[in-house]
User: What shape does this take?
Amino acid sequence: MNEKTEIQILVVGAGMVAHRFVESLLSRAEDGIHITVVGDEARDPYDRVALTSYFSGASPDDLTLDRSVFDDERVTLIPGERVTRIDRRAQTVHTRAERVIGYDTLVLATGSYAARVAVDGADLPGCFVYRTLDDVQSLRRFVQLRSAELARPLRGAVIGGGLLGLEAAGALQGLDVECTVVQSSDRLMSAQLDLAGGSMLRRLIEARGISVRTESRTTRLDPDESGAVTALEFQDGSFHRADVVIFTVGVRPRDELARNAQLEVHARGGVLIDDRCRTSDPAILAIGEVANFDGRSVGLVAPGYAMAEVAATLLLGDDATFPGYDESAKLKLSGVDVASFGDALAQTQNALDVVYADPVAGVYKKLVLSDDAQTLLGGILVGDASAYGSLRPLVGARLGADPVAYLMPEGGVEAPSGELPDAAVVCSCSNVTAGRIRQAVHAEGCMDAAAVKSCTKAGATCGSCVLMVKKVVAQELTKLGQTVSNALCEHFDMSRRQLFDAVRVSELTTFSAVIERFGRGRGCDICKPALASILSVLVGAHVLDGENATLQDTNDHVMANMQKDGTYSVVPRMPGGEVTPAGLVVIGQVAEDFGLYTKLTGGQRIDMFGARLEQLPQIWQRLVDAGFESGQAYGKSLRTVKSCVGSTWCRYGVLDSVGMAVRLELRYRGLRAPHKLKIGVSGCARECAEARGKDVGVIATETGWNMYVGGNGGFTPRHAELFATDLSDEQLIQAIDRFFMYYIRTADRLQRTAPWCQELEGGLAGLKEVILEDSLGICADLDAAMARHVDNYEDEWAATLRDPQKLQRFQSFVNAAETPDPSLAYVASRGQMRPATAQERERGGVMIAGTTLEVRR
Assistant: This one.
């Protein structure tokens, strides 16, 4: 050993954490070390976090981590080799191939293995775990062969409703397998979400076409005649048909090497380590999921990366300590936005909750605060996790503002935009602080987020922090006087405006074609809905056609607004608030026949609440037959044109406001935009239609129409500003045409017209020059674009009813299209049915969906 010229470091395990350890050590070590990495998978280390992307087109090569790490002459990688024994006295390991490898320091990074439910039938053909590339490749092969053999779509079940279970369900759905998630607890993602958040997540998952069973314990898996799995039996005696089953019930540390070598191991699994990743043998370290710190082993990559950095620092002769587990998590499932961070379940003594819930939009947000409501402890975001990147780095810090500001939706109270403290962790996966990012910009010359990502690894793993990384980089570049990128997201370097123009000029018609030519990767929950909006304007295809269906937000998936109990609202269009007595009779009869709660909205329409998913086509068939269209209350589009009765009836009215409102609504119906649009038309200066609170306000005068722009209600109401006066009918319509089309082409993602007008170069005066004076020479193009929209308009629900394939998504349960969801319960209130509260459910006497039980009043 004295003759050695190099320190021999042996890493057992070749996963993501081992890769990070080697990468970190090489980047800081001088000559004089040699690292041997032994992995039992016959391939290079790959990104296990992105495993689900394999089902959306990613190849094994796409998932492979940076291979250059193992091209370094100081590293030897031995793949496809399993270590069978550690000889601590001789400081060697033995492999299955009878290889003996010596070490000065041994690093255990063996990770964990996927567990299965301990029941009969768990090993039947058709049963899989979801852990490795081999697992997902085997799963896909089985589905392809089995579906061909049975000559029908397969039925699938995922046992375990955590993060991985929901991703696995999305993978099955991507393979055209009808999928049900089976969860033993009372809610999905029970380790990260409270009951309210879990309930909202369930509705989002079911809206995506995935069924959910909670409080269901699997007791047995049954085989068919061929011996393959065919059904699950549950503790309550019920069963569920399934041709393929995936177990995602947790992981267990692969600590058998440590146990056999008589290292200290926790009773529940995992090699015991101290805060410097040292085991009971000073020559052996343990990092990642195999390690047990403070009595726990955690199956997340972020703490594994933190351990890898600590271990590398220790071997370099410096000191570092593992800070403990950061269990922040963000679900990676298209169309379902969920995140949890810090003390999300409010286990800190005297913790306070601040909750924002929007059942209509399917959004639930909660911040957990210290007892003085000053320090952020954690949070839950369901339906809209856009604030995750901003909030997670603030855990443990004083918010410095009203907590409500961080929860409001786009267009509401603006969250403070101050700088993060240097110590705030921006990227939890790689433990990169705001200070480290600033150092990369100022000292290492990183001029954009991509360079910072390459330099610091911030955003290189799960990607949930990319927006915050961009924000910190932008702040520092501004200080340096540099131009700041306005890229839409990490997949597109263009802004939304630039991307709109690129798609328009290239005439591309699908998301995959656009990202192949102008972007990279597979897209995210930022760029996909943004591209869906752009393509709807430029291509005009149905929101559920082809790829479009996978790009939409939750409500657009079923063309209805999800409510707090998982049902949906139905809002037929009533242009200008006008409806005939015959139309009212139809709406009343539909509401009565389906037991819907009815309410007049502020937009002068009738909203019918409580429609179950499988009832939507039946309801809309009757409405369409009666001449109604979709009111698009679910879309980022024109919602309503509100009007007073104007000169038709009112003695003060000077112009026909109802006629103009109807004309405008029929013209702009179905117009998709960066955000929702509203118009108001008042027949005189008394302003009964509240036109100046709308994106476009129209007020009649003795000499024509006055047009106002840039107003909105919400949490930060803003009056519209006078844009043009004394317009004729045709002049008014032309001005609105151009205003809307210019906004659609140039606004940022989810930007309302009010802030857009404020941020335009030249302000309102500059906007007038563009719209009224054609200063940019684009008015003819804007006019033509609006004409194409008007000519190509087709009611989304009418088109859906003609398409059997689109109608398949409107089922509560994939195997029983007409079966109502038994979790829906109602009580009578003021002559109508409304959702029962939790207390009312406990008292009993509620009406269950699909039954005729007497209701307790």
